[in-house]
Amino acid sequence: METTEVPVLIVGGSIVGLAAALFLNAHGIATLNVERHAGTAIHPRAGHFHLRTLELLRQVGVEQAAIDASVDQFGTGGGINAVESLAGKELAKYISDLNEGVAAISPSRRMFLSQQRLEPLLRHRAEELGAALEYGTELVSFEQDAAGVSAIIRDLATGGERMVRAAYMIAADGNRSPIRERLGIGMTGPGHLSDSITIYFNADLRPYLKGRDLGVIYVFNADQRGFFRLEKAATSGFLIVSTFGDTSVPGARDVATGITPEKCVALLRSAVGVPDLAVEIVDVAAWKTVAHTADRYAAGRVFLVGDAAHVMPPAGGFGGNTGVHDAHNLAWKLAAVVRGHATPELLDTYETERRPIGVLTVGQAYTRWVRRVDPELGVADAPPVIDDLTMEIGYLYGADALYADPRQHPVPLGARAPHLTLLRDGQIISSLDLFGAGFVLLAGGDGWRWAEAAEQAAADLQVPLAVHRLSSSGLIDVEGRFATVYGTDDAGAVLIRPDGILAWRSGDEIPSLETVRRELGLALRRIPTATPRALSASRSSEQSNLTPTCAGPDQR
Length: 556
What we know:
By secondary structure, this protein is an alpha+beta fold. Helices cover 28% and strands 27% of the residues. The protein has three domains: 3-76 and 108-188 and 291-355, 3-Layer(bba) Sandwich (FAD/NAD(P)-binding domain), CATH 3.50.50; 190-290, D-Amino Acid Oxidase, subunit A, domain 2 (D-Amino Acid Oxidase, Chain A, domain 2), CATH 3.30.9; 384-556, Glutaredoxin (3-Layer(aba) Sandwich). The chain has helices at 15-26, 51-59, 63-74, 115-128, 178-183, 206-209, 261-272, 318-338, 348-372, 388-393, 448-461, 482-486, 513-529, and strands at residues 3-11, 31-35, 48-49, 79-83, 90-95, 111-112, 132-135, 137-144, 149-155, 161-171, 187-202, 214-220, 224-230, 236-244, 280-294, 298-299, 302-304, 310-311, 421-424, 427-430, 439-443, 465-469, 475-477, 493-496, 502-505. The strands form five sheets. Strands 1, 2, 7, 8, 9, 10, 16 and 17 form an eight-stranded mixed sheet that branches. The protein has an eight-stranded mixed sheet with strand order 5-4-12-13-14-11-15-18.
């Protein structure tokens, strides 16, 4: 049998699988994606992308293309509200502008963009960086041994099969993940919530928007509970119907069974509030609303990402975003191990870091679902709501607390390294633009000892490290916030992981060059091999004294 060899085999070619390919190839690690479908997405799913996701796309050169596509499809900004019907009474206004209050925290902006528009952008950039993508191809079987994974894949058009030999395999094969099932990994959480439908349609809704700039429109009336997402022209979009209007009626949570085009037209007309609305049904998708997390994120040389690792209801837009973050966390670790810059123990930290975030995020999607769509499931038993900004960029790795207010100064170790406005060669950039390729040492203007010793320490350990010192020449801290934001002083320094996580900071003293070399060596040596302490999900939003950035308990 013909055999293809590749460092990493990725099963799945949707958003998360493409993101994994993109991030790995950006680190110089070749990948092969196999995807059963004939191409990228054909329906406008997963339309809300979070701040951190755009920051990660910025690192690999996709952000601007995504912004352009978003503006073309949905416009800028966009709010979120709830109505009895589009033409009728407004029940609540959750957000007036999706990006209110984020300018000081990030160079990126949240956006609405459909999956069918984003996936080709990810695919194109991944292929530019060297990724191999095979659509119309399925995984037949796989086996692991001490040195790698042997997988049989099949071309669905020809029936031809061949073997792929990879050092590691990533399962990005969706919520029903055959790979997860093959590995015997169970799922834990609230479980099945409803049998929902998505109605893709064409209809002229311009008269009923009334000049409102809305990215998500929740609909609650006697017939249904769900939400609209409409494109900028307001002549096409989709309506998700999660339950029928009265969930005390038997079968109210099963919208999918017995659905017909006539029923879809009736639901659309009810959601718009126009009984004789002219509607064209383009397609209808039936799917299960589920909330649970995989009991393990890895088994040997196989790693679960995205929906294979966690499935959550569409309340808050967490699903695809969390999967992209999984892929980003895993990619730099696989790259470090494949290149020999780290021991395989580093890969153990993928599960210890990302699974607690998955559990937390599934809980937050579930609590938004209960509070917003189906309170009869039991609001009192649902987790407290953590504000959106904290969920997007406030999580911690390797710490006793699972999340922190991203607006606090200084940020704790294990948190996303904060945004600073910098001037480089006459151009305004963000400190986030320095991160992504490898380890980064960022030193204050007087931190020359750290900068001088860092390169030698990295060379001794054979760890890629870029050194940047903020000074009057080269790289300027425009607002003079480095010491305050990063929790050091102008003679200090911080070490940033390749995924933009703050890993270490210097003390207040000004040490000798030998001390600098020793401390940096210890920090760099510790990061690739240490397993972080177990994360605790016990803190509630009340205990963390967080201040929501958006009005109302439900922001999405």
